[in-house]
Structure prediction request, 235 residues.
Amino acid sequence: MASVVDLHALHRFHLALKSVQDELARGPRQVRARDNQLAQLDVEKKAKEDELKQTRAATDRKNLDLKSSESKLKDLDRKLNEAASNREFDILKGQIAADQASNSVLQDEILESLEKVDRIMQEIAAIAERRAKLETERNAFAAQIDAQAADLRKQESELKGQVQEAEKMIPESIKAHYRRLVDAYGADGMASIDNGMCTHCFVSLTPQIAVVIGSGTGTPTFCPSCDRLLYAIMS
Ligand SMILES: [Zn+2]
Prediction:
């Protein structure tokens, strides 16, 4: 009795299995992409926090400079009141004017620094907000992926059973060859023929091979060009 070797059905099971396995792999990959985005935001936030620390330290230094310069000015003012000569008075006057000018520059710089501190703090808050949103979204997505995974694993196990069942039709003489192909290429180890051509490599088969495959009887054949296990789609 010649058993019908329904390679088309076997290939369908292989393809369905591959699609389920691809989907199983895709979920965790998408979760990892979100984790990478979170890590990237952490790096950006850390850089901003470092910048904030440096800007605050610079502001503190300028404030100290200003304070010491102001106390020096008070000292000069006192000396000015006690000036013993016009010459001393003029020199002190000049020093006071120069110090006042440099203090004014310092005050502008401090103001700028404080504005910068405000701006960086706002930037840090914006990053933290983006991160919180993304994390909420990531956790909801991961939970959804987990819920789907249970169902996909069930489908995967069913399809593996269907593949094994369908593989029983494969003649012993080509089983090892078939196994090698499926181990190496998965569902891609098989190809249908269309118009006398292998649909994997699109090489035209000899009419004899095409006829044998088209009849669906006899030992299944491998593509002479790409080695895929060939089958005809029976209508
Ligand atoms: Zn081929």
